Amino acid sequence: QGVPSQGGRRPRAAPVDAYVGCCLVGACMHHREPKRALEIFRDMRTWPHFDGPDLRTYNAMICGLARHRFLHEAVKLVEELCATQHTARIVKAIGHGTFQQLFRALRERGDRAAKLSEGLVRTLADAGIAMQHSWLAD
Fold it and tell me: Is 9 helix (H, G, I), strand (E, B) or coil?
C-alpha cells in the first residue's frame, strides 16, 4: 500500500548515504565484480537526493580497479579527481596505499602500461601532487 502520508503529502525520500555507495562498490570489488562496481559507480550520479560518489568511494574504486587490473579505468578516475578536487583533499582521501597499489599494478603490466603510467605521473604533477618514493617502490 505504500508509505502512509503525512498531512495528505507523501514523505520526501531519504537521501542516499554516501556510505551506501561506497559499500556497494566495496562489495562488488570483494566479489571480483569490477565491471559491476563501475556500473554502480556511474549510476550513483543519477541517484535522486544524492550528490554523487564521495572521495571514499573514489578510493574504493581506484584501489579495487588497480587490484583487478582495470588500469585504464583506475587512471581515468584519478584524472577525474585531479580535475575536480583540491590537491590536499585528494592525497588525504585517496592515500598513499592506493597510489602505491596503482603504480605497482602499472609496473607489473610493463611496457603495455608505460604510456598510461607516464600520463598518470603528468596528471598528478599538473595537479600539484608530489610523487612519493613509496608509490614507486616494491
Answer: strand
Global pTM?
0.82
Could you tell me the three cell numbers for 129? Answer: 601532487
Nearest-angstrom CA–CA distance, 74 and 60: 10
Which whole number is the average pLDDT over 77-87? 86
* Backbone angles phi and psi of 59, in degrees to 5: -60, -50
**In which band, very low, low, confident or very high, does the pLDDT at 7 lie, cut at 50, 70 and 90?**
low
Instruction: Give the long-range contacts of residues 67-74, CB within 8 A, separation 24 or more.
Output: 67/29, 67/101, 67/105, 68/29, 68/32, 68/34, 69/105, 69/109, 70/34, 70/38, 71/102, 71/105, 71/106, 71/109, 71/113, 71/116, 72/116, 73/34, 73/38, 74/102, 74/105
Tens of pLDDT, residue by residue over 24-50, are 999 999 999 999 999 999 998 888 878
Q: State the pLDDT confidence band at 2, using cuts at 50, 70 and 90.
A: very low
**Are residues 104 and 138 in contact, defined by beta-carbon separation less than 8 angstroms?**
yes
